[in-house]
């Protein structure tokens, strides 16, 4: 899953990016409001981690703008402002969660998983599709009850497919969920990953929709 | 010991005004009564004397020898008058007339003029006139006089008492009404939340209007201070939490990353620790400068010492150009002056890198007008006029991607303020020039 990190302090941003990547998220980091606005149009992010005191303004204004434009993406505010008034204002401006710095990495990851779960409309942390079972927090994929060991990128790809259900995903969307900042995808890499997944989980696990992209198959 | 609460203004006014009214009115009344008594006594005495003279006049009108009529000596006035009496005798002692038979003991053998006698248990006033061989004595009973006096008193005292009571009531009402604005101001103050700092809106008479307006000014100043303090606290929290977040997150990463990658995040954590230390150090410097503002104003130092100290810890001196009169003296100790100068040099070195790789930074000690100045000039991108005005605010940073706490110029300004100096930031085109000026003593 792809996370857009809006954070202007490079030391903090580096640490958060590393932490998120360690937990199998693809991360892109931007430092200002304008960049964040542009990034959300460019990438198909699944979640935004938003700092408030940015050098070109307050993250809250950006959030309010997004919500006014019916932008549904889940947003976690991650800020040093811990006053009650700030937390209330943040949530009222449309944030889905509010985490204060310094934070526990595990808690942030858990909150991100919870938000992704809620935004995909599920109640349980376990994603089930046909014979596939996946728990994002545990990073464990089961096929017919058997744990399947997949390389990181292939697992990321399956995660993206499983979150999307049977929606069609474009190659760009899939690439964004695989590659964050500084990772240039090979033009053919996506097809290679899908080829490997089909080999391990059966031919029908991923369907190719010509001209549009891919979607999850029946996986029986 | 609890201090006794002073009496309320209303109480004070009531007690002092009503007290003095009662006192003045009592003195006046006593004076009036005494005067009235004297006057009445005088008037009644005059009447007593006039009666005696009237009797004398009437006797004069009688034909010669009429009074020698022996028949008359037994003739008393038929209906004795109550409270008054009269007697006429020849000087030889023979009685001519008496109002009542049984009053001989009262009216006999008086001394001439006014006198007083006790008769049958009551006091009488007598007047005796000697006229053509006759002794005429008139008398009236003192209790009649007293009754009259009391009657007059009652007639006079009623209106006076009513006036006094009326006046007391009017005073009480007037005081209450007069103090109403004060009371309403007190009420307004009492009803405020203690933390409320907005001005009090009340229509008040001109006497206490200044009190309210200076109170409102004070409130406004306090509100500004509180806002500044809150912003400072929020900024300080932010500046401390940010590196703390980097430290904490990197340390958490270190426990999860493989051995090979661990070193890198520990170095990151270390960098964040250093940054945090810098913020804390600078906050402490500021706190110290706040606490003993003038303490460093008692010594002086030379430009040479100050510059030497300021550049002592700078690793790369190749971009620095030092010039000017190094013997100029500044009215503060060299360590503090060097701290200010060092902050300016650090700013110049870090902000003026974009233009040219090796753009120089000039440090000069010069005399301008009646000031001794330390000047730091760079050839970097300079500063916008709006930024120059804000630059000395605590935690203000020109560029958030730059390292630094945003306290450097605040410290420099604090040093200048404490040592009677001046911090001048001006565009140098190209670049920026910052001057630290102290007036020559």
TrEMBL record, chain A:
GO terms for molecular function: DNA binding. SUPFAM superfamilies: C-terminal effector domain of the bipartite response regulators (SSF46894), CheY-like (SSF52172). Residues 124-218 form the OmpR/PhoB-type domain. It is found in: Cytoplasm. Residues 2-116 form the Response regulatory domain. Pfam families: Response_reg (PF00072), Trans_reg_C (PF00486). The modification 4-aspartylphosphate is found at residue 51. The keyword Lyase does not apply. InterPro entries: CheY-like_superfamily, OmpR/PhoB-type_DNA-bd, Sig_transdc_resp-reg_C-effctor, Sig_transdc_resp-reg_receiver, WalR-like, WH-like_DNA-bd_sf. Keywords: Cytoplasm, DNA-binding, Phosphoprotein, Transcription, Transcription regulation, Two-component regulatory system. Residues 124-218 bind DNA. PROSITE patterns: OMPR_PHOB (PS51755), RESPONSE_REGULATORY (PS50110). PANTHER family: REGULATOR OF RPOS, TRANSCRIPTIONAL REGULATORY PROTEIN QSEB. This is DNA-binding response regulator.
TrEMBL record, chain B:
It is a multi-pass membrane protein. CDD domains: HATPase, HisKA. Residues 235-441 form the Histidine kinase domain. Signal peptide: none annotated. GO terms for molecular function: kinase activity. The keyword Transmembrane helix applies. Keywords: ATP-binding, Kinase, Membrane, Nucleotide-binding, Phosphoprotein, Transferase, Transmembrane, Transmembrane helix, Two-component regulatory system. It holds the Pfam family 2CSK_N. InterPro entries: 2CSK_N (IPR013727), HATPase_C_sf (IPR036890), HATPase_dom (IPR003594), His_kinase_dom (IPR005467), HisK_dim/P_dom (IPR003661), HisK_dim/P_sf (IPR036097), TCS_sensor_his_kinase (IPR050428). It catalyses: ATP + protein L-histidine = ADP + protein N-phospho-L-histidine. The keyword Glycosyltransferase does not apply. It is found in: Membrane. Its main location: membrane. This is histidine kinase.
